[in-house]
Amino acid sequence: MADISADGPRPAPRAPTIDQVRAGLQARNRKQTRLKAYGLLAIGFAFSMLALVLLSLVVTGWRAFTQTHVTLDVLVDPAVIDPAELPRGNFDELLEASLLAYFPNATERAERRAITGILSDGAQFILRDRVAGDPGLVGQTVRLRVPVADTYDQLAKGLIARDTPEENRRLDDEEVARFDVLEEAGLVTQPLNWGLLVNTDSRFPELAGLRGALVGTFWVLLICFVVAVPVGVAAAIYLEEFAPRNRFTDLVEVNINNLAAVPSVVFGLLALAVFIGWFGMPRSAPIVGGLALALITLPTIIIATRAALKAVPSSIRDAALGLGASRQQAVFHHTLPLAMPGIMTGTIIGLANALGETAPLLLIGMNAFITSAAASPFESATTLPTQIFIWADSPERGFVSRTSAAILVLLVFLVAMNGLAIWLRRRFERRW
């Protein structure tokens, strides 16, 4: 029916034709197809960048998981090593005599010193610990496998090309020839480098390991877990289940959400000023690092716990209250157990994020050169991220591969923690 206006009847709008409808549907389908293509392109780009990063780390770091060694038969000469004075003794002389036996023509002092330079400076300590652990070895011949110096390790792994002009190599032709003599004698091997995990840090790349960083990371995460989880879960339970709804609680909730977006370096400055400056806690200690990471993790745990509590249907609370349970009993006996999978997931994800933090730990001095693993959270230590920073800043070329290897170890821990969070959610999650 036509509309009537001041100018007279207005004709009714014409219905679109079939061709117009089909054209409109085709246009919408084309837009939807483009949108899907953009999404797939974005996902493909993200995965390609991730694959590129992982590939570069593997290509650079896989060599650090093996270490070039030389196997020697060392005579523990009683004239050099006195069992009564262990662990003191000239163990370097014993290794030198064993190695020079393969170079009988080396008579000059400079040449002999160059030959002994094939071995790592820490080789003598390996022999010392072996003999000190079993003094009965004095007077016997011990078969010992010791690491070579970093430059010869790079030569064996192909990082120093033999066809490079001599003036552009870190090893000259004579040094390469001496190493070839040991290879031809079958003394050179490349076993798995367990020292990367069981050794502590060292100035020599061939001896450096992650043990101190792994122990320091354990202490830091333990302190973070002990402080952040009880406080975060308790705060979330109060805010979600017991706190009255007023301006004060609204302000607290807004500030918690804002704290989750604060850069981690700010928490490092806070830890430096408060925990070290005011409370006098030891610098470079895991106790300070753990407290700093606890401050970073708290907002994540609170937000995740509140979300898990909200996900529990209100009918569970109402049923418990209807049967005579108190508010506290309804929360702790019914709501909290059902929300626990989400709480555990949020906690693990928060700790995983804390594991990768570097800036706050650098500010409190956890990037110091530490040659022993911390026996308590009050001793100086490093963590995996700060150890990576230390090695990346080192001028020695041998630390390049070890830096990538340490990043791979850190990624393994992060993937394991996130995988555990996913498994816990799927294992205990309930659908309503």
Query: What is the N-to-C order of secondary-structure elements (H for helix, E for strand)?
Result: EEHEHHHEHHEHHHHHHHHHH
Number of helices: 16
Taking the sheet with the most strands, its summary is: 3 strands, antiparallel
Shape: extended
CATH architecture annotation name of the largest domain: Orthogonal Bundle
Could you say what the CATH topology of the largest domain is called?
MetI-like fold
Task: Catalogue the unreliable spans.
Answer: none
CATH class of the largest domain: Mainly Alpha
Strand content: 5-15%
Rounded mean pLDDT score: 88
Give me the CATH superfamily of the largest domain. Answer: MetI-like
Total E-strand runs: 5
What can you see in these coordinates?
The protein has 16 helices and five strands. By secondary structure, the chain is mainly α. It folds into two domains: 66-192, no CATH class; 211-428, MetI-like fold (Orthogonal Bundle). It has a three-stranded antiparallel β-sheet with strand order 4-3-5. It has a two-stranded antiparallel sheet with strand order 1-2. Helix 13 runs antiparallel to helix 16 (398-428). The longest helix has 44 residues, at 18-61. The protein starts with a strand and ends with a helix. The mean pLDDT is 88.
